[in-house]
Amino acid sequence: MTSLKKEYEFLNDIGLSSRNSGCYIDGAWKGNGPIVYSINPANNQTIAEVIEASPQDYEEGMKACSEASKIWMQVPAPKRGEIVRQIGDALRSKLQQLGRLVSLEMGKILAEGIGEVQEIIDMCDFAVGLSRQLNGSIIPSERPNHMMLEMWNPLGIVGVITAFNFPCAVMGWNACLALVCGNCVVWKGAPTTPLITVATTKIVVEVLEKNNLPGAIFTSFCGGAEIGQAIAEDTRIPLVSFTGSSKVGLVVQKIVNERFGKCLLELSGNNAIIVMDDADVKLAVRSVLFAAVGTAGQRCTTCRRLLLHESIYHTVLDQLIDLYKQIKIGDPLENGTLLGPLHTQTSRNNFEKGIEIIKAQGGKILTGGALIESEGNFVQPTIVEISPTANVVKDELFGPVLYVMKFKTLNEAIEINNSVPQGLSSSIFTGRPDILFKWIGPQGSDCGIVNVNIPTNGAEIGGAFGGEKATGGGREAGSDSWKQYMRRSTCTINYGSELPLAQGINFG
Ligand code: NAD
User: Fold this and answer.
1) Hey, is 400 helix, strand or coil?
2) I need a labelling partner for 508 at 20 to 30 A (CA). Which of 140, 325, 443, 454 fits?
3) Ligand 1 pocket, 173 CB below 6 A?
4) CA angle centred on 108, ends 364 and 170, rounded to 5°
């Protein structure tokens, strides 16, 4: 390729050109692996080329990163926070352009592309405050003249492997915390969103360079499964944070466990919304629309199962089907589009195969259910009436397909909610306190995210984000998630001259 097409020229503003080196290694841009093409999912045309990492690039990058970690962990935490504050400012100044690239390369609508970058900015703000609050504790000792305290120390290097659907925000959730906690970051983005990986890395590392810090504090590789596998196997990386499918997450977890590394897993979801008989139907319908159709059903928190009380079943469904027929489908960068394309042609094929399986298992298509003939990967937003016991309902079909089911009692609805292998997000629509407290309590939803009167998606960064069961059990972003990025040291200090032993033991 020679130069960027006119409609892609805005990419120059975020440091991209028609051919890009895909690895940031020891403060320099390199790439000696295969060339990959970044494809626009709205028309399947090439946007630009990226050169991925070779195994030698990986090794060189990791050597430099290991050296840099010795320096970074000694920088005082609030000073690390100041660097993250500057990263937030750098992202603010490129919010529109990077958001536009997220929309262009991933395929989500522009508002969501910009929202994704905003999420990293919010995480930067959160992490700056956190950099002054990585507090340990003092514990009373049972022994005279002894003191016990708990210290939090950096792990060294955090490996971050991310999925295509949040091509930069998930890096941000991890990197902001990892950096203030004193760790270097090694990031491998999704192989189909290499331009976002390169552009985001450029914004981050310019801040390091401006502050005369080693660039290798943030090491970044474009690449696929081989680079991901190398990260999983690498004993220099004590924590691997993996976001992606449960299938690949399980493989990564086994490899990391095998070497006694730590794994933070953010895997597949299969999220339900329950609408009770007393629900505000208008609120519920709007929420389901956003939760099921937003990002073309390609969020881990997308609502895939809608559980309707029998008394409002037809009221909700009729309104929803009516809205589905009005959804504006088209170029995600165009004003007013609500549903963009699926990310790849493979995703589109998976949708088609999924619909066949749904039909074979007794699913009744109420609206949608077909591909849309065009150059891009467009499919119809789909609602399916199906039994909660159908096997297909247990899997995550990564597209805008919503399964609708009827229930009679709250207990039955909770049972259906909890009957799938995944446990990421869930929501109930009700105004009754007895229902909502049961829902968030021990006999309620078994998910990591348990909402009331809001969609399953669109989490705020202040809470810990993640899910149970096949979703992997990890927690990222807010609350005390930072503790996963640090090593806890329990220190007992004897400031006397006797040696009393714990549990009153007298040893000779
Ligand atoms: P994926 O599992 O195919 O790929 C995820 C990442 O793993 C990519 O970077 C990929 O290159 C890498 N990878 C592939 N094989 C590997 C291997 N053997 N070793 C190491 N790394 C390897 O997932 P995807 O299709 O990119 O993303 C969609 C999935 O991610 C969905 O299941 C979605 O629910 C999930 N997801 C979960 C969350 C969450 O927070 N729970 C967030 C976003 C996406």
Assistant:
1) coil
2) 140
3) no
4) 110
Contacts of 353 (CB under 8 A, 6+ apart): none
pLDDT score for 508 = 82
**Helix, strand, coil percent values for the chain (each to nearest 5):** 40, 25, 35
**Where in the sequence numbering do the catalytic residues fall?**
266, 300
Give the residue ranges of the chain where pLDDT is below 70.
Answer: 1
What residues does each domain of the chain span? 8-266+472-488, 271-460
Q: Residue 470 is inside which H or E element, if any?
A: none
Question: Quick one: tokens of 213?
Answer: 């810090």
Nearest protein Cα to ligand 1, atom 22: 225
Q: What does pTM read for this prediction?
A: 0.98
How far does the centroid of ligand 1 lie from the alpha carbon of residue 456, in Å? 20
Residue of 102, 105, 243 best suited for mutating to test ligand 1, as the one with most atoms within 8 Å of CB? 243
- Following DSSP, what letter does each residue of 317-386 receive, concatenated? HHHHHHHHTTPPBS-TTSTT--B---SSHHHHHHHHHHHHHHHHTT-EEEE--SB--SSS--B--EEEE-
Nearest partner of 245 among 83, 12, 421, 50, judged by Cα: 421
Q: How far is the CA of 285 from the centre of ligand 1 (A)?
A: 30
Predicted local distance difference test score (pLDDT) of residue 44: 98
Using the mean position of ligand 1's atoms as its centre, give its distance from the Cα of residue 278 in Å: 38
What's the pLDDT at 1? 56
- With both helix axes pointing from N to C terminus, report the angle between 77-93 and 194-210 in degrees, rounded to the nearest 10: 130
Q: What is the dihedral of CA 415, 421, 427, 429, to 10 degrees?
A: -30
> What residue owns the CA closest to ligand 1's atom 11?
224
Based on its alpha-carbon atoms, the radius of gyration of the chain, rounded to whole angstroms, reads: 24
For a ligand 1 pocket test, name from 248, 264, 303 the mutation site with the most ligand atoms within 8 angstroms of its C-beta. 248
Q: Which residue has the tokens 């348990």?
A: 450
Atom of ligand 1 nearest to the CA of 224: 11
Fold of 8-266+472-488: Aldehyde Dehydrogenase; Chain A, domain 1 (3.40.605)
- What number of other Cβ atoms are within 10 A of residue 311's Cβ? 12
The mean predicted confidence, pLDDT, of the chain is: 97
Q: Count CB-CB contacts under 10 A for residue 348.
A: 21
CATH class of 271-460: alpha beta
Shortest-distance Cα residue to atom 26 of ligand 1: 163
Residue 314 burial (10 A CB sphere; 0-12, 13-18, 19+) = exposed
pLDDT digit string, tens, across residues 208-235? 999 999 999 999 999 999 999 999 999 9
Q: 147 is written with which tokens?
A: 């003191």
**Which residue's CA lies nearest to atom 15 of ligand 1?**
225
- Pocket test of ligand 1: the residue of 245, 457, 461 to mutate, having most ligand atoms within 8 Å of its CB, is 245
